Amino acid sequence: MDSQEFYARMDFEAFGEILGRQNIVNATIQAEERFDGMQHSTTNREFTINYSDDSLTGRIDDRATATAYLIFATTKDSRKSPDKHFKMGGPYHFEFDRIYDPETDEGNAWNARGWRISKMKLRLVWTENEEIDKFRVFTKGKAETLR
Fold first, then answer.
1. What is the pairing mode between strands 59-75 and 37-54?
2. Is 81 within 8 Å of 64 (Cβ atoms)?
3. Domain holding 38: CATH number?
4. pLDDT of residue 1 exceeding 50
5. Which pTM does this prediction carry?
C-alpha cells in the first residue's frame, strides 16, 4: 500500500478499524448493498481549523477536526416489511489534513488541493430494533461476510 492509499483511517469502534481508501470503499459497498433503504443523518456539526505558519522553515501546517452526531436507519426490504428496521446512533470524530502539491503549491494555502479526511471514528452509543450482531459489518479491518 503506498502512502496515499494508507492515508485514510476509518474506525467504527464496535466494527473495527479499516486502513486505506480503497479498503474503506470496498467495505462500505459490501456493508450497504444488502440494505434496501438507508438514511444517514448527521447533526450538531462543529469544525475547528488549526493553522500554523512557520516563517523560518516556510512550513504550513493545516489541520482540522470536526465532531457530529450520526443517526442511521435502515431496512432490509422496505417493500415487504418497512416496519422491520434497524437504527443506531453515536458521535463521529473526524480529522482532516489540507493537501498540497509540493512541486506547484509551494506551501501556499491559496493553492492547496483541498481538505481530506485522514481519520474518521464513530462511537456507537445506541441501537434500536435489531441486535447489533445481526448488522455487524466490519471486523478487524475487513468487511466480514454479511448475513
1. antiparallel
2. no
3. 3.10.450.50
4. no
5. 0.67
Do residues 71 and 91 touch, judged by C-beta distance below 8 A? no
Contact yes or no for 17/9 (Cβ under 8 A):
yes
Which residue, chain included where needed, has cell 474503506? 24
d(CA 69, CA 71): 7
Number of domains in the chain: 1
Q: Residue 109's beta-bridge partner residues?
A: none
CA 22, 28, 34, 35 torsion-angle sign: negative
| CA 136 to centroid of chain Cα atoms | 16
Please give the grid coordinates belonging to residue 108.
501556499
Residue 78's identity, in one-letter code, is: S
The parent domain of residue 102 ranges over: 3-143
Nearest to 74 by CA among 128, 125, 13: 128
What distance in Å separates the CA atoms of residue 100 and residue 112, rounded to the nearest whole number? 5
DSSP 101: -
- Look at residues 32, 10, 13 and name the one whose alpha carbon lies nearest to residue 21: 10
Name which residue leads in pLDDT, 14 or 68: 68
Share of the chain above pLDDT 90, in %: 16
Average pLDDT, the chain: 74
